[in-house]
Amino acid sequence: MKTINPLLNDIDACIAYAHKINPKKQPLTIEKLRSFPGCEHYSDEEAAVIIQSFQQLTSIAFETITYGQSSCSSESEAVYLENTDKLPQITEPNRKAA
Length: 98
Prior knowledge:
Number of strands: 0
Shape: extended
Distance between the termini: 26 Å
Number of helices: 3
């Protein structure tokens, strides 16, 4: 099976890739999800949850892009955390990942 590793640098590249992998704009099914490399092992229940998550994510992204643009302004308000000096510090791992 040929794996596609696209370089998605901008929205136009993302749209072109979406058209390439789904030219008929059919909804994602469990069988289609399993056709992608690394997704073959999902059970029906796992695949259904993943598909539902994708649907929710795309709805949020669509709403953010279409409705969020009109409500965004360059005069944003900064929100600061209280007691930032008490936040836990993230340490670097002792060894490199394999």
